[in-house]
Fold this sequence. Notes:
CATH superfamily: Gamma-glutamyltranspeptidase, small (S) subunit
Largest sheet: 13 strands, antiparallel
Shape: globular
Radius of gyration: 23 Å
CATH class: Alpha Beta
Number of strands: 18
Low-confidence stretches: 1-11, 13-35
CATH topology: Glutamine Phosphoribosylpyrophosphate, subunit 1, domain 1
Number of domains: 1
Strand content: 15-25%
Distance between the termini: 30 Å
Mean pLDDT: 92
Helix content: 25-40%
Structural class: alpha+beta
Amino acid sequence: MLGRRSAVAATLTGGALALATLVPYGGAAAAPEDRRVPPPKVPTAVGYGGAVASVDADASRVGLEVLRKGGNATDAAVATAAALGVTEPYSAGIGGGGFFVHYSARTGEVETIDGREKAPAAMPRDAFIDPETGKEYPFFPDMVTSGASVGVPGTPLTWDKALRKWGTRSLGQSLAPASRLARRGFVVDETFRQQTVDNAERFAAIDSTAELFLPGGSAPEVGSRFRNPDIAKTYDLLARKGVNAFYRGPLAEEIAATVTAPPKTADTDLPVPAGWVTTEDLAAYTAPDREPTHSTYQGLDVYGMAPPSSGGTSVGEALNILERYDLAEMNDTEAYHHLLEASAISFADRGAYLGDADHVEVPVEALLDDTFAAERACTLDPAAAQPKPVAAGDAYDFDGVCDGPTGPGVTAKDTENLETTNLTVVDRWGNVVEYTLTIEQTGGSGITVPGRGFILNNELTDFSTTYRADDPNRIEPNKRPRSSMAPTIVLSEGRPVLAVGSPGGSTIITTVLQILVERLARDRTLPEAMAAPRASQRNTASTSAEPAFIEAYGGPLTSLGHRFASTAELGAATAIEIGPDGLLTAAAEPWRRGGGSALVVSPVD
């Protein structure tokens, strides 16, 4: 379908013009202060001049306003991310980290910043072992709700570095709209209230968290206005004194003190063990540039995030396997069978090889090699699902010949949580940002830095909790835990045609992969690809799948040997497609996680 590269941009825009009539506006007038309903969310917007897509309407509006005032994609992305730190404080914020992928219209290059959290220098390999029992702490809530789970945050430095490399505005200018939003407050919706209720026990265990997020001892009511003047003051501090005010000085001392002596309430039954982050760890943190992963699919160039993320290699390897088959000519059962099997294979290799490349050897080039993909595809039976877990391939010795499995199949134990957030921005000049950021669990560690308005991450639970010397994701000091975040930018003949990313823990990889396959190989429009029911095969005996997927495709796939476990929803993606003459189709989730918000500067009527 996409072998003719000259036709790619036009093909990718198929359906966009028809969708334009469904989009009433690209933005909306500011709502009055006494509003008691959240601002409307429009999941698809079509137009010109720049676009923003995120999970939150207030945050998307902040980004759109930056674009309208002449800011570029990086300026808008940082401003949107800062606003998400206000309205989505349980998914993202300056207490966490993420991966920032940028395409420059001027140079034609894709570059990335690694803002992943780091383990402190004193983190022991038995960090998550209860000294009294000698066994792992129960993962939730004990292991998560702890100073021991907190890594050195990378988000503030990521914002500052991105703005210095590609932005036109200062950090202070980019934080100002979010600071105003925090003081004015946002209208609580069902999702925010339910997330608070779901974490009430954890939040009540921490004095500072209970004070901020459980006012009066209960979750904020839907329709009430939630204000966070503490995060506004913290943003103002960074605006005045720069990002060093986070990593050095009084705020750094407060962060370290909060981690090493969590302010837990006297009557909680949760252990809330202390962690190891020090002021020295904060001062030593860096957000390095990483060479993006690069693979090709049907003549398109697919760029993603390199280790410590497993997203770029896993998505790329699965696409390399799938490229050997004509998915466009297959029926639904055949296409999804191949998708699930390719995903299982890539996850087998992810578990065997992926970790922080600064600490372990990761054969990135081999994992994205077409010859390696040909050899891995040998195990894919078009007529039957292979038993799971499947074995990893040998990334150090391959020739594309079908030699059979090289060892036992092993499923990597994943503890990445489903709640993260993602945003996509394109500006009038054609610059693109795909940015995934997180504090890990819904509500992170549950520990709010007193008086500062933000929750610290629990990212260190992404390490393998039991130490094994041959595990690439084993706990080590100053190491970044493996991530599945997969911010992805697709180019055709050097120009961007699609950017996509999602939250969802290890299901991020399968969500991004499925959206790419639906759009690029199965000729769905971008909104159709976003709305299609999802399944997530991660080299496990059962495939996690949304009820609509099981209802529509489960029967025929089960006859091929697939087994399914129902899950309410998978992912909460955002994406923007760039068509001929700069026509933008911005897409967010129509319903997952309460739906998302897509806005364009100049909508098409």
